[in-house]
TrEMBL record:
CC per GO annotation: cytoplasm
Name this polypeptide is given: Arginyl-tRNA synthetase
Family classification: Belongs to the class-I aminoacyl-tRNA synthetase family.
Domain Arginyl tRNA synthetase N-terminal: 1-76
Source taxonomy: Bacteria, Pseudomonadati, Pseudomonadota, Alphaproteobacteria, Rhodobacterales
């Protein structure tokens, strides 16, 4: 039951046809003094707000509509709010889910090079990617979580050489010690030892990465290995596909410039080896089997890579598929293992998701553990815990809280459509604040209101991959 979504589609249908209405929004007003909701529909459509006001005034879900400049403010009817709260309380953590009606999505995230353990930055990408995946699932999409293992190039050789150093006692590295311990010997000749040691080191490193992802609550559906694509013929097949479609020059140069990139991109080096980009072309081609919607969550250091990847997906799919690149800024902080050990996965997720995704962050371990209103993890989790306590008090949900609860299905839909899980976190902070205000009144919050708020909280936490406190329902 998406109350705001339903009102919004009525609004859209009241506007003149043939306009681009993508920018039309219906949002919860920051305070309820001017109405509960506000829309820019008349502004976007360039129509007289009075027309919308007249139409909305006839809607049984709306008590009052008024124009404010070009904006229109609305006040919901008590019956509509009560109804939404009842459904929320009944649905619990499923409040706001959509049945499966979205297209399947393939999302790649957290794809660190094989390395013994993730960095804070990759953990941040994991928090963002997995929360986005869950938010899309909540909105009805089937989601495939993908990890691209860059084991085909120089980094994997470097890893193997580092392990060799530990193996021979030339260096020490506690992170590599367990990998070196059972590494194959392979003899003295690098041509003999490099390949088997590399394979061993990649396996060992990926075991560590997997177990950290698991501890974080991330379950990948598929690991795509660059080397396997290159050596197993998938890269050659992808290049042949592009060639057959007429997008390859001189046998190995992809005409990315035809698809909005600044220049053509080589897929093969002088010495005959495939380029890093060629591996990615094959990986995206694989992901296009069964998906027309691809999302890559990459570090902001990949910004320059955007055009050529997008060009490849357009060319491979004949324009039928889209690639959405979401860039996540670096996190300066201790390794993922230390963050997870100190904070646990739930607080770590909330702390990593709090800053805007593209902005670099300094991970503040002490701040994430702090009991402070300014700590989003504490604010959300402590409010969630309080909502789990059954009280015998009798006050109904105050209007701002009722409104936040009723808006959740629409907020969840917007977060999925905008591919921004931080919208969910903002909503949870809002629910937390308004719930605490309601519970702190002398009359407290009655059980129906408490259950509806708890439902909203539990549903939002599930989108972020944060486990609810035990009693939240
Ligand atoms: N399909 C891709 N190229 N994914 C990005 C890989 C990111 C790279 N391995 C890193 O650690 O930064």
């Amino acid at each position: 039951m998406d109350l705001l979504g339903a009102i919004l589609s009525d609004l859209r249908s009241a506007l003149p046809e043939g306009l681009n209405l993508d920018a039309v929004v219906l949002r919860k007003a920051p305070t309820t003094s001017q109405g509960d909701l506000a829309t820019n529909a008349a502004l976007v459509a360039g129509t007289d707000p009075a027309v919308l006001v007249r139409r909305l005034s006839k809607d049984f879900r709306i008590d009052r509509a008024s124009a404010a400049g070009g904006f229109v403010n609305l006040r919901l009817s008590k019956a509509a709010l009560d109804d939404a709260l009842k459904v929320a309380a009944d649905m619990g953590p499923d409040w706001g889910t959509a049945g499966d009606r979205g297209e399947p999505v393939s999302i790649e995230f957290a794809s660190a090079y094989p390395t013994p353990g993730l960095s804070a930055s990759h953990l941040r990408q994991a928090a963002f990617g997995d929360a986005l995946a869950r938010t899309l699932e909540f909105a009805g999409h089937a989601v495939t979580r993908e990890y691209y293992v860059g084991d085909g190039g120089a980094q994997a050789d470097t890893l193997a050489r580092a392990v060799r150093g530990v193996q021979e006692g030339r260096t020490t590295d506690p992170a590599l010690a367990p990998i070196a311990a059972d590494a194959p010997d392979g003899g003295d000749d690098e041509d003999g030892w490099l390949a088997p040691l590399r394979a061993h080191a990649v396996r060992g490193a990926m075991r560590m990465v997997r177990s950290e992802l698991e501890a974080f609550g991330v379950r990948m559906d598929r690991f795509i290995f660059e080397r396997a694509l290159m050596e197993g013929g998938a890269v050659a097949a992808a290049v042949a596909d592009l060639d057959a479609a007429g997008h390859v020059r001189d046998g190995y140069i992809f005409a990315a410039d035809r698809f909005g990139d600044e220049r053509a991109r080589p897929m093969r080096l002088e010495d005959g080896r495939w380029t890093y980009f060629a591996g990615d072309v094959a990986a995206h081609r694989l992901r296009l089997e069964g998906h027309r919607t691809l999302i890559d969550v990459l570090g902001t250091d990949h910004a320059a890579y955007r055009r050529r990847l997008t060009a490849a997906v357009t060319a491979l799919s004949g324009g039928a598929a889209t690639l959405d690149l979401r860039l996540v800024g670096p996190a300066d902080g201790p390794p993922a293992a230390e963050i997870l050990e100190t904070l646990g996965p739930d607080i770590a997720r909330l702390a990593l998701l709090a800053p805007r995704a593209e902005v670099p962050m300094t991970f503040d371990m002490a701040g994430a553990r702090g009991v402070a209103w300014g700590n989003p993890a504490w604010r959300v989790l402590s409010a969630a815990a309080r909502l789990g306590e059954v009280g015998a008090n009798g006050g109904g949900a105050p209007r701002p809280l009722a409104l936040a609860i009723a808006s959740w299905p629409h907020v969840a839909r917007c977060a999925a459509a905008e591919r921004n899980p931080r919208i969910v976190l903002s909503h949870l902070l809002d629910i937390a604040e308004r719930s605490i205000a309601a519970l702190d009144r002398p009359e407290g919050l009655d059980d129906a209101g408490r259950r509806a708020a708890a439902a909203s909280m539990a549903a939002g936490l599930s989108c972020l991959g944060v486990r609810p406190p035990p009693d939240l329902g």
